[in-house]
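User: Hi! Is it possible to get a structure for several chains at once, not just one? Here's what I have:
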Amino acid sequence: MTVTLPDQPAKTPAGQLDDAGKPPWRDRINWARLTPYLLIVPAVLMELLVHVIPMVVGIFISFIKLTQVYITNWSSAPWAGLDNYGVALRFGNSQGKALLQSFGLSLAFAVLCVGISFLFGMATSLVLQRKFRGRGLLRTLFLIPYALPAYAGIITWKFMFQRDNGLINELLTNDLHLTGDRPFWLIGGNAFVAVLVVSIWQQWPFAFLMTMAGMQSIPDDLYEAAAIDGASVWQQIRYITLGIMTPINSVLLLLLFLWTFREFNTPFVLFGAVPPKSADLLTVHIYNSSFITWNFGFGSAMSVLLMLFLIVVSALWALWNRRVNRRYA
Amino acid sequence: MKIRTPRSTVRGLAVTASAVALLALAACSGSSDNGAASSSAGSVSGSGGSGAGATITYWASNQGSSLDNDKKVLQPEIDKFTQQTGIKVNLEVVPWSDLTNNTLSAAVSGQGPDVLNIGNTNAATFQSTGAFYPFDDAALQQFGGKQHWVDSAFATAGVAGQPVTSLPLYSQVYALYYNKKMFAAAGLQPPKTWAELVSAAQKLTDASKGVYGVAIPGGTVNVSMHYSFIFGSQNGGAPFDAKGQPTFTSDGMVEGVQQYVDLMGKDKVVNPSLAQDSDNSQAPAAFAQGKAAMYMTQTSGINVLRQNGMDPDAYGIVPIPAPADGTKISSFVAGTNISVFKNTKNLDASLQFVKFMTSDAEQAILNKSYTTIPPVAGLKASFDAAPEQLSVWSDILNNYSKPLPLVSSVQAFQANVGGAVVRLIAQAATGNQVDSDTVKSALSDAQQKMPTS
Amino acid sequence: MREQTSFRIFRWVVLVPAVLFTVVPLYVMVSTAVKPLGDVLGEFRWVPKTITLQPFVDIWSTVPLAHYFVNSLVVTTSATALSVVIAIFASYAISRYRFRGKGAFSGVVLATQMFPGVLFLLPLFLIFVNIDKSLGFTLLYQTRLGLIATYLTFTLPFSIWMLASYLNGIPRDLDESARVDGASAMGALFRIILPSARPGIIAVAVYSFMTAWGEILFASQMTNSASRTLSVGLQSYSTEANVYWNQVMAASLVVSVPIVVGFMFLQRYLVAGLTAGAVK
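Assistant: Yes, the chains can be modeled jointly so their relative placement is included. Here is the combined structure:
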């Protein structure tokens, strides 16, 4: 959506700004020039307070050895140089290995969660594109998980994933007789499945919402013309719907990816501060090393690395998006 | 001029921005000297009514069966204190899950309560932050000196050779609780060695009925660390060497952790579901409901079990047995200490409150209510229990306990080793074999995560 | 238009799992909330043996739920209002003016909007406690005000981003003709832009409100018993003795229903606001 924003030169309002040289406007020029700055001052101040300064502080912390010994007077913490980064990136030792594993895990989690949510949302939008009885009801129903406060949904799933009194095991062992032994969902390897399922449950309605809105903006006569030409429903979807949807999809995919990659709520509520290895997502991993083991310098170094990675992802996406936009514009 | 206007605006913005940034940074690195200076002023104070009229804030830890229960126990005593001294106390009971974190925040910010409780395992950690008021020998005199406390308890107050920053309030030890009825029905005697414990547990386990030999809080990080220390010590291991360097991978530690994890893995005497018990709640419930015949917990377990409907006459208590050729260790000296926050503006009042809380009279009352052992010399455990149980508790404290190493990285030790043991239990519960190589590599990972000092 | 059989099958293949996937957890939430604790702790039963409304009574006394509710409401509403107001001005500048530093400003907004909160948690924690330390009293750390500020880390950039694209979609002729007629910049903003940007503004508000209402990371680190919000407070239904699953579910329901209902009323604005930039 906003990608178009920086590329699109804003027109000058009422023509007075760029024609600054014209004498009749002279008196108002300074004031007019100042207006946009006055408008963004509150935003700039808040951005400084909540983002820019904390980011600078965070980067600074990543270069010092900030453990509990220095926490009361952190300006006296010794300079660590690149030590924290060294520990994080030395993949041979356990800290680096854990970070690498956690990174890979988060990547796999994000790709799976975004992919499945997107396909699921898209498919649902497609089948709900045409009017039929109960369509409105279904649409409302599908949006409920998204509207629900995050923790309410996650806690419900946590209850469902309980080994002895949860619904999932009741379903698998007693109702469907798929396994004899009640599996664990919140510890061991299955924890990854659990956190993935819960995240998809929360994310896919958003994909549904966005794709549905995109499809509504496609004029009906396009389909009618195609139908007259003898195109099947599948061909219409392939050539009209998906084609027109490409720009909206690319924004949607980026948003979903960024949201999923920084997901904290789901693993934190499901597993607490010490998640099983299979669900040790990056954000929880960083939280853990900062606030549970009190190694703040190291936690900050990992945060900075994560930030760099997200910048790279977004830059790549921007390049790709520009190409897409050029093709479909 | 008109061209320069926007530029100067930008410059102005930039200046403003950097000024704000500098201001904030200055505020951040701001010194904590003022607090330190004011607190050293009144280090030794008479116990007169000098603090009268002051109001202090006290963060009490959650010792009872609920936060409400704590308030019911503490409030009457605090009223007594206010009556004696005129000092008002604003009581806040903080759950353990928040206490460490809140204390850390208070240490960083200098904004905290006047007096607070800490878990004694963290005594050295908080001592190293310098956030607490140091009780040097002179300051200790007002409480009756070191000799006011039992030696083993006072050893938990802080690193030797430095002024301690916390004073023992409630002591606890670990013991093995066993269900009398279940043992009698199976014709078993309480175990004296680890092998006996395992064989009794196997006899008592009947998975088809959902009954198991032992209940463990398999997902609870701090208890898992405690167990690793106890069982490691039984096998001659120690988590830290004399210089305070971690030695998690020493043979004794590996064997000790293995011994514990085997309950879930090889011996199969634990309900696998308990691997999910991340707040030590399901294990006592299972024991109280007769779904498990044994349970290893601290003295305060008496309270928790009562809350779950199990009275002290239903179980017996013995020291946690060690392997036949091992060292007979059942516990470390666990417990809760009381500290004064260095930045307090009411030092006199705070010290008077500490004196009150550690006095013989209050110690007797509070330790009875909390079913804990008084750490002050000359007082015996007096809580509601059979006399022979009380003597077992003091026997464990005096003969089967080994102090937990007082190193400043205990918090990291708890997080890393506790976390590793929790994951090993999870592996065992999900049917994976946990052999000594698995244990060793998990502990080695934990060791590498320790901050280097 | 004739539907092909294959498409009709496809519809069922998609809708049946989607409905089940959505409804089952909701059913679990509702049915567990009306079970007595004893029934909840045993094996899961699809149909409750006994139905009781007691959990809905107990939730208010087990934890100070009403207190948490008020905190959540204050924090969330303030953060939302603040970020919407700030975003209106900023996005108006971005959308309608050309000025030096615009690229840098929108760049920062765009960049910060994608960073995870955990990046800011520790620095904010240190900055807050140190500001409090130099002030000598608790202004920001573990207070509602501090929590509001941290919530701006995610509500503000998204609001500016979304509103700017929405304003871009509003024809410039509208405000330009007003300006020609002599309206000031503020006049044009308040009389022309704001009324036509209403869906965009509501979208921003809805998004901010919902994200802040469900936020957990900052809430768990930056609150204490006085400022605790629902997202953390709801987790205190598990005690030493028991996890009160029925009360957890009842409380979840109570705090969710107003949000869900409100969302359903306003969701069409969210759709309009979110898609404005991308579709146009």
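Chain C has one domain: 62-279. The longest helix of chain C spans residues 245-279.

User: Great, thank you!
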